[in-house]
TrEMBL record:
It is an enzyme of class 2 (transferase). It comes from the Eukaryota. Keywords: ATP-binding, FAD, Flavoprotein, FMN, Nucleotide-binding, Nucleotidyltransferase, Transferase. SUPFAM superfamilies: Adenine nucleotide alpha hydrolases-like. It catalyses: FMN + ATP + H(+) = FAD + diphosphate. Pathway: Cofactor biosynthesis; FAD biosynthesis; FAD from FMN: step 1/1. InterPro entries: PAPS_reduct_dom, Rossmann-like_a/b/a_fold. Its EC number is 2.7.7.2. It comes from Lentinula lateritia. The keyword Flavoprotein applies. This is FAD synthase.
Length: 352
């Protein structure tokens, strides 16, 4: 478990230093302090889903509380809410569990029904062209999953939270300006009409993608391992993939002794496809009994019998398609506008 007073010393020292991040850290801590003063120190929670942004915010929140609390209060748990997406990554769930222990979180788990998904789950397009650069993503085309209703699941989750913990009236959120609809928010704003009443507190809205990673790495703060595998924005396994902008190129792989994924535009002959299938499935007596055509046909048929959701999830979680060594880590992404290039299309409007 972290020492909350040590975190307080760490972040407040950095906020008053000459470090380039100091103004942003001070701003975020001031917003947190103002929210705690306005709502009540024991009435503010943090929305935590294991992503990079809320991991930054959690560390700052712990620091702010550490400065305010007396020695006898250091062991008091930090209120938090986790609103899960459909089919979350197991490694992300593990990281959240670790954070609960490390930061002593009193975490309220909320999993809305599948049909009331928090976000529209759509797979990325097979290829994306962004600002003149082609990033080939060898995946199926966009495919919706289930009966996603955008913000309805979020609203229901907050209703459950308010019913369970009615004294909580402020929630810290790790939204930034570059997030979908992030340009419409302020440091503090109430929830919309018809939603459970909370103050939305957004301390890091002015942080960039690069600022987030500088903070995490400079302070050696643990983060979800998926980011080291090329993921830059996390959601459901159905609509979250390694960022194609971080794909290791042939030249890079020669230096790293890594074999890159084949380009989606590559022309593969039936013979090459069959060879790949055979090598990946490790030929067995059952396969030997079939002709090459039957083997390939069986493989294709078994793939097409899966539902779209099952196929997307299988592709996403299969090391045959994604090896951690084939993508650069998230902190190496230089173009902030490509942060969500590995996420699904048609991101819905979600309000609190």
């Amino acid at each position: 478990m972290i020492q909350i007073q040590e975190v307080a010393r760490q972040v407040y020292d950095l906020a008053t230093s000459n470090d380039p991040l100091a103004p942003l850290i001070k701003e975020a801590l001031d917003v947190i302090d103002e929210g705690l003063d306005a709502c009540g120190e024991d009435r503010v929670s943090i929305s935590f889903n294991g992503g990079k942004d809320c991991t930054v915010l959690l560390h700052l929140f712990a620091g702010a509380l550490g400065k305010r609390r007396s020695a006898s209060e250091y062991t008091s748990p930090i209120p938090a809410i986790y609103i899960a997406v459909p089919s979350s990554f197991p490694v992300l769930e593990d990281f959240i569990e670790d954070a609960v222990k490390d930061y002593n979180l009193d975490l309220f788990y909320c999993r809305p029904p599948q049909e009331d998904s928090i976000e529209t789950v759509v797979t990325p397009a097979a290829s994306s062209i962004t600002k003149g650069r082609d990033y080939i993503h060898p995946l199926p085309g966009p495919r919706s999953v289930g009966k996603a209703k955008g913000g309805e699941g979020m609203r229901q989750a907050l209703e459950m939270y308010k019913a369970q913990l009615p004294h909580i009236n402020g929630i810290l959120i790790g939204t930034r300006r570059t997030d979908p609809h992030g340009d419409r928010i302020s440091f503090r704003c109430p929830t919309d009409e018809g939603w459970p009443r909370f103050d939305r507190i957004n301390p890091i809205i002015n942080w960039s993608y690069a600022d987030v990673w500088t903070f995490l790495r400079q302070l050696n703060i643990p983060y979800c391992k998926l980011y080291d595998e090329g993921y830059t924005s996390l959601g459901s396994t159905y609509n979250t993939f390694p960022n194609p902008a971080l794909l290791v190129t042939s030249k890079q792989s020669a230096n790293l002794d890594i074999q890159p994924l084949p380009s989606a535009s590559s022309i593969i002959s039936p013979t090459t496809a069959l060879t790949t299938v055979m090598s990946n499935t490790h030929a067995t007596p059952q396969l030997d009994a079939l002709s090459p055509t039957e083997v390939l046909s069986t493989y294709i048929s078994s793939t097409h019998t899966k539902s779209g959701a099952e196929l997307n999830r299988t592709i996403n979680q299969s090391s045959e398609f994604y090896s951690p060594s084939q993508y650069h880590p998230a902190y190496m992404l230089k173009e902030d506008h490509l942060e969500r290039a590995g996420r699904g299309l048609n991101i819905p409007s979600v309000t609190l």
